[in-house]
Amino acid sequence: MGWIKAISSKHLNDKIHCYHGTWNPEMDRCWIREEDGLCVQSRLIRVPEAFGGKVEHVTITKKGLSTDGSGGLTWAEKQQIKDELFGENRTAVEVFPKQKMLVDICDVYHLWVFDKKFELPFGIHPKQYTKAINRGYNITPDEMCTLQAYYKKRDELAAAAKAAELSETAEVPDEAET
Questions:
Q1: Both 13 and 51 in a single domain?
Q2: Are residues 34 and 69 in the same domain?
């Protein structure tokens, strides 16, 4: 089974005034997927032309709105939802805000899906307008020596444990021999 259209928060709010806050009462599209209890809602918002003029604010939740982290979704699940409902040729971002702007009271995931023509001015794929900035290393020579010593000791301990395990299994007589 796939996605089915459902009554949106905006529709419910317009009829019975049941939603509060700034963005939830504006969610005017809604889809649910019954087999896993996922609910996706969206609203179209205006943004500066540099960002394409509009962006779709998308929320993804699982049935029951958990507050304990059990409603978690993987990156691949969010990518699949974006592709299925908004298109494979659109870029979306998930924001990790400044701590003072953080709202984390239940497992609701927010994506912002851009117009098909919009391209992020950065990414993991090389672009002619991006160039890495050489900022040196985040480790000092002394720290590097400490790390090298740590890895050497770790490898020695692992080898000793493996040797001890092998010698223990070699010393245990086979039940057929006793």
A1: yes
A2: yes
Question: Containing domain of residue 158, as a range?
Answer: 141-171
Residues 78 and 14 in one domain: yes
CA-nearest of 161, 68, 63 to 106 is 68
Residues 148 and 95 both lie in one domain: no
DSSP result, the chain: ---EE---HHHHHHHH----SSSGGG--EEEEETTTTEEEEEEEEE--GGGTSEEEEEEEEETT--SSSTT---HHHHHHHHHHHH-TT--EE-----GGG---SS--EEEEEEPTT---S--SS--TT--------SS-HHHHHHHHHHHHHHHHHHHHHHHHHHHHHHHSPPGGG-
Instruction: Tell me, yes or no, whether 163 lies in a domain.
Output: yes
Boundary (domain end) residue, out of 95, 114, 133 = 114
Tens digits of per-residue pLDDT, 39-91?
A: 999 999 999 988 889 999 999 988 766 666 666 788 999 999 999 999 999 99
Q: Model pTM?
A: 0.69
